């Protein structure tokens, strides 16, 4: 496609009411992924250009609207279906009217709540997806009945919907032991079967993958002393040269270096989730079977510092290549239409 590929980055949230048209003014990106940072760090401005399209639930009640005649591809960064269902509904209407190639349709994002993903991945060969229940207006009796009907097994992790970075209320051995949930009519909660995935050497392993178009990028591999692995957990590997070497080998080998069983299972996950761009946190056993922790587009690729070091740096080049390939493929769809 001749000239620059012009990208409209859709951002927004359910809290803001005013639409911010000034590109220089920051808006809240809570519940949005960091695809904008990947673009800013990775691409030559002679080939790609982008503009921010801020959305809120009130967008269609405003007189002023976004002009998209100079946009080739839309990229929806609003990725948390728990936090921003109103904005996602507006984005779905907006993108339907634009008739432009789109990365991560809002309708598909809305199907990535934890309990929906658990249902969609259940029963796929070589994948273990712990059962997850959505608790609304929970009482002890309701949770008992819901767990029994679903064949749900305790112990279980309880977390409020829309939370990330390892935030949770705790791991509970039975419905009777759950605290901080019953009687709460304002918030919703996820109840997820707890799986002890400790390796024979005593470590807990979590690998983050990014699905970008038809490519899968191995972003990070962490070995931890505790099961609740999140952003800072990798720092504890500094005192374990063997674990650092393992992480470097995993990231350096990438998707192609995984066992065939794991590659097949990961492809199946990509097919079921159905997004152009999303992340997966999982643990792989020695035979390549995949224990899924979370799969959605809310995951960030880059750390807050905006750069990658050491064992993770090897993931940057394949990620850049995958995103570039995805954008060019979407832009080609636009060229075909015109």
Describe this structure in words.
This protein is an alpha/beta fold and 338 residues long. The protein contains eight helices and 13 strands. The strands form three sheets. It has a five-stranded mixed beta sheet with strand order 5-13-12-10-11. A four-stranded parallel beta sheet has the order 2-1-3-4. It is globular.
Number of helices: 8
Order of helices and strands: EHEEHEHHEEHEEEEEHHEEH
Number of domains: 3
Mean pLDDT over all positions: 91
Which percent bin holds the helix content? 25-40%
Strand content: 15-25%
**How would you classify the helix and strand content by structural class?**
alpha/beta
CATH class of the largest domain: Alpha Beta
Backbone CA Rg: 21 Å
What's the β-strand tally?
A: 13
CATH architecture of the largest domain: 2-Layer Sandwich
CATH topology of the largest domain: D-amino Acid Aminotransferase, Chain A, domain 1
Shape: globular
């Amino acid at each position: 496609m001749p000239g620059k590929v012009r990208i409209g980055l859709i951002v927004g949230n359910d809290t803001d009411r005013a639409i911010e048209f000034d590109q220089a003014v920051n808006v809240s990106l809570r519940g949005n992924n960091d695809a904008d940072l990947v673009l800013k760090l990775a691409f030559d401005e002679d080939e790609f250009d982008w503009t921010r399209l801020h959305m809120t639930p009130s967008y269609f009640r405003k007189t002023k609207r976004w002009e998209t005649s100079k946009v080739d591809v839309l990229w929806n960064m609003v990725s948390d279906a728990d936090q921003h269902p109103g904005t996602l509904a507006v984005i779905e209407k907006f993108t339907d009217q634009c008739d432009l190639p789109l990365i991560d349709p809002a309708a598909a994002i809305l199907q990535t709540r934890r309990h929906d993903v658990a249902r969609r991945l259940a029963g796929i060969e070589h994948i273990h997806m712990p059962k997850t229940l959505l608790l609304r207006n929970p009482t002890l009796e309701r949770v008992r009945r819901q767990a029994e009907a679903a064949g749900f097994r305790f112990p279980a992790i309880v977390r409020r919907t829309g939370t990330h970075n390892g935030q949770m209320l705790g791991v509970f051995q039975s419905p009777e032991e759950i605290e901080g949930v019953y009687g709460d009519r304002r918030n919703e909660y996820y109840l997820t079967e707890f799986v002890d995935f400790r390796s024979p050497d005593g470590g807990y392993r979590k690998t983050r993958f990014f699905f970008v178009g038809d490519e899968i990028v191995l972003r990070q591999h962490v070995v931890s002393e505790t099961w609740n692995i999140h952003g800072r957990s990798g720092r504890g590997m500094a005192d374990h040269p063997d674990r650092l070497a393992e992480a470097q080998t995993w990231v350096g080998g990438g998707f192609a270096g995984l066992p065939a069983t794991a590659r097949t299972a990961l492809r199946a996950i990509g097919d079921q989730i159905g997004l152009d761009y999303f992340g997966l946190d999982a643990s792989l056993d020695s035979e390549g079977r995949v224990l899924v922790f979370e799969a959605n587009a809310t995951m960030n690729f880059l750390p807050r510092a905006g750069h990658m070091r050491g064992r993770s740096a090897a993931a940057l080049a394949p990620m850049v290549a995958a995103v570039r390939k995805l954008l060019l493929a979407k832009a080609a769809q636009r060229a075909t239409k015109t």
